[in-house]
Amino acid sequence: MTLDSEQKVPLAPVRTALTATQIIANLSKVEGWKLHGDGADVAIEKTYRFDNFLKTMAFVNAVAYIAEQQDHHPELLLTYSSCSVRFNTHDVHGVSRSDFECAALVDALQPA
């Protein structure tokens, strides 16, 4: 059995790093997200605040679900009443469109 004849394995989506100009333009579209770090450590980050730990954990679990669905996993920093979410794309050593798409999906979890 060969991979070509029996089974096709889907390739990961092609991601490319955004330029500084593209990052700034996209930051204007996602409220509250800020640029963090520089070089290969550059990321976008936002901190969400909650009334209690249970609400914070519910948010974290919802973010985990989104991350699995998108196959794009953020760094999370969790406290009793807050969660900081940081996205970057390791394979391009920068910020990609996927980071902004996931940021918008996470923002949609919060009531307006």
Task: Tell me what the structure shows.
- This protein has 112 residues and is an alpha+beta fold.
- The radius of gyration is 16 Å and the shape is globular.
- Helices cover 37% and strands 18% of the residues.
- It contains four helices and four strands, in the order H-H-E-E-H-E-E-H.
- Residues 1-5 have low confidence and may be disordered.
- The relative contact order is 0.21.
- It has one domain: Gyrase A, domain 2, CATH 3.30.1360.20.
Any descriptors?
Gyrase A, domain 2, alpha+beta, 18% strand, four-stranded antiparallel sheet, 112 residues
Topology:
Blueprint: H1 3-6, H2 20-27, E1 34-36, E2 43-49, H3 53-70, E3 75-78, E4 82-87, H4 97-107
Antiparallel strand pairs: 1-2, 2-4, 3-4
Give the helix tally: 4
Which topology does CATH recognise?
Gyrase A, domain 2
Contiguous low-pLDDT stretches (5 residues minimum) are 1-5
Relevant CATH superfamily: Transcriptional coactivator/pterin dehydratase
Gyration radius from CA atoms, angstroms: 16 Å
**Neighbour order of strands in the largest sheet:** 1-2-4-3
Class in CATH? Alpha Beta
Taken from the alpha-carbon principal axes, the silhouette is globular
Element string (H = helix, E = strand): HHEEHEEH
Q: Could you report the average pLDDT, rounded to the nearest whole number? A: 89
End-to-end Cα distance: 53 Å
Return the structural class.
Answer: alpha+beta
Strand count, sense and closure of the main sheet?
4 strands, antiparallel
The percent range for helix content is: 25-40%
According to DSSP, the number of beta strands is: 4
- Roughly what fraction of the amino acids lie in strands? 15-25%
Identify the CATH architecture.
2-Layer Sandwich
Number of domains: 1
